[in-house]
Amino acid sequence: MGTIMNQSQTQGELATDPVEDSGQNADKEDPVWLESLRQSKAADERRRSLARHARDDYKRLSLQGKHKGQAADAPRPCGRGEPRRVLSPPPPLPPKPKTLLPRARVANGPLTRKQGVQRSTSTSTRESIVQWFKEDQLPLRAGLERAAGHVAPWFHGILATKEAEELLSNAVPGTFLIRVSEKIKGYVLSYQSAKGCKHFLIDASGESYSFLGVDQLQHSLLADLVDYHKDEPITSLGKELLLYPCGQQGQAPDYLDLFQ
After folding, report:
1. R_g (Cα) of the chain, nearest Å
2. Which pLDDT score, from 0 to 100, does residue 83 have?
3. How far is 224 from 227, CA to CA, in rounded Å?
4. What is the pLDDT of residues 195-247, one digit of tens each?
5. Contact 175, 182 (CB under 8 A)
6. What spatial distance separates the first Cα and last Cα of the chain, rounded to whole Å?
7. What are all long-range contacts of 185-192, with beta carbons under 8 Å and residues at least 24 apart?
8. Cross-strand partners of 249
9. SS (H, E, C) 35-47
């Protein structure tokens, strides 16, 4: 009999399960429950949307703060309707100050200029230049033709720059002369080019001759320097060839005081 009751009880429990399941399904189909579920999902979606917008705003503000300085300096492209801004030229640079030699103070005395190392003096008088030429240059046959013993047609005495330019003013390009400088113990080659008169300093501080600041070729004679540049230009840019010597134009040669 106990077995029968257990079986009946089990059958009764099994009979009541479908009823409970149908009740739960009915709750899920209840309009009130469905509306509550919909509102809950909508609230969750709004929260997620607000959180997403907050993250985007934070990133945007961070980028704006990071590139604040760069955005101000970045070039802005001109639109089709915007006129192009014309930049004004920069102001001219101030002139360079003249280079001054350092001064040294003498004890209990005025300021004196410290003399630098110079290859030749710029305070030489005409008499000292003539003396220098006779003592140092005549033994080296300066101003003479290489083969002959007479004065070269291109050689002149102590001339100023203006006097040399006057002698070459009506000459054709390629005409030249070599003159004793009026300021230093050395020579100047004055050359008439198509664009005007040029002047090249000749270093005569040793026992050779070469252009200052042009090349480093050393010539034992002043005439050798002239002969060399009859075929080789003085500068690669100017292409100066010594073609036509400019001779004396006055009755008395301007180099007489050098050879007397």
Report:
1. 52
2. 52
3. 5
4. 999 999 999 987 889 998 766 788 999 999 999 999 999 998 989 999 999 99
5. no
6. 170
7. 185/120, 185/121, 185/124, 185/128, 185/129, 185/132, 186/120, 187/222, 188/161, 188/164, 189/234, 190/161, 190/164, 190/165, 191/234, 191/240, 191/242, 192/168, 192/246
8. none
9. HHHHHHHHHHHHH
